């Protein structure tokens, strides 16, 4: 790296401690099932399903191999869920003529299963629905893929993970896999976070667990790396000698809007500061990473956090 140039590699070529035995050079040929747990909740309708719809419109979720399943305690039908989601998937701005057709086709990919988060029968019904889809796509057993997205409060993560492990795991000997995606806040404090990691770690390999912060997907946040390290004007000036102070301001133009129960349990500080805003702080303050590999970016973020004095 003596030239100061960044090296960009495809994710699949990385070999590091964060990818385990699942990450082999086995072609992914089977169908993909995306299961949104907590499908009737606020996060799912405002963030998860709109994001999936955008991926669908961009061609990343081909309808001939992808199906989406919603799972929650609310007792509604497939059509009821589709009706609830429709308003959140409709753009307020002028849309191309094919938008309505895309929306209709996308909603037809969604099926719904009702059940509790510690209900074995519910997860068995979910597994049956997924298996029927895999069979209809003529996927060879062991080649299909299952992605479970937790649009849920962390308090139910352990019980849901146990049910997935017991009822919904996919055989992965022919390039197939089962993965879980967990959202923030990951516990209420350090102790509960470590306990949660231990509980999930007993059930899944590290390569099967994806901890995400959806703020990192925002265009403005993603552009911070380019703004800082690919800009000849900013890069030499972005230091304490030239910058007096940095203020990270979080504003929303709406209230709790259906999230009252969630905020009663976690609060706005745990919901925003130690994940979203701390990630932005790290991107603003970190040194240039060796490369764009996720491990190298993570290492530079950790250096920032280690340099922050305790309040």
UniProtKB/TrEMBL annotation:
Q: In which pathway does it act?
A: Carbohydrate degradation; pentose phosphate pathway; D-ribulose 5-phosphate from D-glucose 6-phosphate (oxidative stage): step 1/3
Q: What PROSITE patterns does the record tag this protein with? A: G6P_DEHYDROGENASE
Keywords attached to this Swiss-Prot or TrEMBL record, sorted alphabetically, are: Carbohydrate metabolism, Glucose metabolism, NADP, Oxidoreductase
A Gene Ontology biological process noted in the UniProt record is: glucose metabolic process
The chain positions of domain Glucose-6-phosphate dehydrogenase NAD-binding read: 35-223
Q: Which Pfam families match?
A: G6PD_C (PF02781), G6PD_N (PF00479)
Which reaction(s) does the protein catalyse, per the Swiss-Prot or TrEMBL entry?
Answer: D-glucose 6-phosphate + NADP(+) = 6-phospho-D-glucono-1,5-lactone + NADPH + H(+)
Protein name (Swiss-Prot/TrEMBL):
glucose-6-phosphate dehydrogenase (NADP(+))
């Amino acid at each position: 790296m003596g030239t100061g140039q960044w090296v960009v590699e495809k994710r699949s070529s990385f070999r590091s401690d964060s990818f385990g035995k699942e990450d082999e050079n086995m072609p992914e040929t089977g169908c993909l099932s995306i299961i949104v747990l907590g499908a009737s909740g606020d996060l799912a309708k405002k963030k998860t399903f709109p994001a999936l719809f955008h991926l669908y419109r961009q061609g990343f979720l081909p309808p001939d191999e992808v199906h989406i399943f919603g799972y929650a305690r609310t007792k509604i039908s497939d059509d009821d869920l589709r009706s609830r989601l429709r308003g959140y998937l409709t753009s307020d701005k002028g849309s191309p003529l094919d938008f309505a057709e895309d929306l209709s086709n996308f909603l037809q990919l969604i099926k719904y299963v009702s059940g509790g988060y510690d209900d074995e029968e519910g997860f068995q019904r979910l597994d049956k629905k997924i298996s029927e889809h895999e069979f209809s796509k003529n996927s060879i057993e062991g080649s299909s893929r299952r992605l479970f997205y937790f649009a849920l409060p962390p308090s139910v993560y352990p019980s849901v993970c146990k049910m997935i492990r017991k009822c919904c795991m996919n055989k992965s000997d022919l390039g197939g896999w089962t993965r879980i995606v967990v959202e923030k806040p990951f516990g209420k404090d350090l102790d509960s976070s470590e306990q949660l990691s231990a509980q999930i770690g007993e059930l899944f390999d590290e390569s099967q667990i994806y901890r995400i912060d959806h703020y990192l997907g925002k265009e403005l946040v993603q552009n911070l790396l380019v703004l800082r390290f690919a800009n000849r004007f900013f890069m030499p000036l972005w230091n304490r000698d030239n910058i007096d102070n940095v203020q990270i301001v979080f504003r929303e133009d709406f209230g709790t809007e259906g999230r009252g129960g969630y905020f009663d349990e976690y609060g706005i500080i745990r919901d925003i500061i130690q994940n979203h805003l701390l990630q932005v702080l790290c991107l603003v303050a970190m040194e240039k990473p060796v490369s764009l590999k996720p491990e190298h970016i993570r290492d530079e973020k950790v250096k920032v956090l280690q340099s922050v004095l305790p309040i």
